[in-house]
Automatic annotation (TrEMBL):
It comes from the Bacteria. Its cofactor is Mg(2+). The lineage of its organism: Bacteria, Bacillati, Actinomycetota, Actinomycetes, Mycobacteriales. Keywords: Hydrolase, Magnesium, Metal-binding. It comes from Dietzia cercidiphylli. Removes the phosphate from trehalose 6-phosphate to produce free trehalose. Residues 1-24 are annotated as: Disordered. Gene3D superfamilies: HAD superfamily/HAD-like, Trehalose-6-phosphate phosphatase related protein, domain 2. This is Trehalose 6-phosphate phosphatase. It catalyses: alpha,alpha-trehalose 6-phosphate + H2O = alpha,alpha-trehalose + phosphate.
Length: 276
């Protein structure tokens, strides 16, 4: 099925009719203050990670739809003056568009910040293509011996997924083999995420993507919300006065934290009310 096959007349995917927004959420006083400041700033960028931030984790990445109210809150914000809202994901851009159902004016940035509306700034050269092919083959060989595992192929990376592998020993073995072999090749960039090892032939950073959004818009404040280790590269590049929000547990460079995805939807809705 192509993206157009399941599109509704407004261009949004029929996979995700938006549901009612969640109940109001309790925010820390510090985060409530920060949102107030963001609401009053003339030009604002809001960048959100996707999986684990707007969409709950599921075994099949093609079925990871947004939480109820998430896209609605982002749409409300994106409809406000001088407010740029981006989905900033490790997924390739086409997959991000399909699962999220997000359409313009929401900005979609894929492949950990390196894939924009016009594609990649520079296409892969022959060496990179050959390396990507080898990484994909080696991961496929590991998958052939690991029931439940699968490989996700992206324009600049291949990803080993082990979330559906029931046996923890097999899961661990597959991850270890990926780290010992394709991830150890010269010229690859490795990211260990939640039940995934991603092996890319191009380096990408969500931090650089946030900086690009800020540069394009002249935003005084950028908000970045994310849950995974890859999102730390985004938090690390925020400026004084920007607002980093970590979702869930774990060490982080973010200045604020919320418990879960419903809290993300709640804070986005609150921000839309304050700025609207
Ligand atoms: O940067 P993100 O938007 O958070 O994307 C990170 C990776 O997300 C996807 O994998 C994760 O979600 C899957 C679906 O819920 C889950 O099965 C997997 O275990 C998670 O790691 C996506 O498939 C990857 O390509 C992204 O890099």
């Amino acid at each position: 099925m192509t993206p157009a096959d399941d599109a509704t007349p407004d261009g949004r995917s029929a996979l995700h009719p938006d549901a009612d927004p969640p109940a109001a959420v309790d925010l820390s006083p510090e985060l409530a203050d920060a949102l107030g400041r963001a609401a009053r700033t003339p030009t604002l960028v809001i960048a959100c990670d996707y999986d684990g931030t707007l969409a709950p984790f599921v075994d099949d990445p093609t079925l990871a739809v947004p939480a109820p109210g998430a896209i609605d809150a982002l749409d409300r914000l994106a409809g406000l003056p001088r407010t740029t809202v981006a989905l900033l994901s490790g997924r390739n851009r086409e997959a991000l568009a399909r699962v999220s159902g997000a359409v313009a004016p929401l900005v979609l940035v894929g492949s950990h910040g390196s894939e924009w509306e016009g594609g990649f700034d520079t296409p892969l050269d022959d060496d990179e293509l050959a390396r990507l092919d080898r990484v994909g083959s080696e991961l496929s060989e590991i998958v052939s011996r690991t029931p439940g595992a699968h490989v996700e192929h992206k324009p600049t990376a291949a990803v080993l997924h082990v979330r559906p592998v029931e046996d923890p020993a097999l899961r661990q073995r597959a991850m270890a083999e990926a780290m010992a072999r394709p991830a150890a090749l010269d010229g690859v960039f490795v990211t260990e995420g939640k039940n995934v090892v991603e092996i890319a032939v191009r380096e990408a950073s969500k931090g650089a993507a946030i900086e690009r959004l800020v540069e394009q818009t002249g935003a005084e404040i950028a908000i970045f919300i994310g849950d995974d280790v890859t999102d730390e590269r985004g938090f690390a590049r925020l400026r004084d006065g920007d607002i980093g929000i970590k979702v869930g547990d774990g060490r982080t460079l973010a200045t604020h934290r919320v418990a879960d995805i419903p809290a993300v939807v709640g804070l986005l809705s609150r921000l839309a009310e304050l700025r609207g």
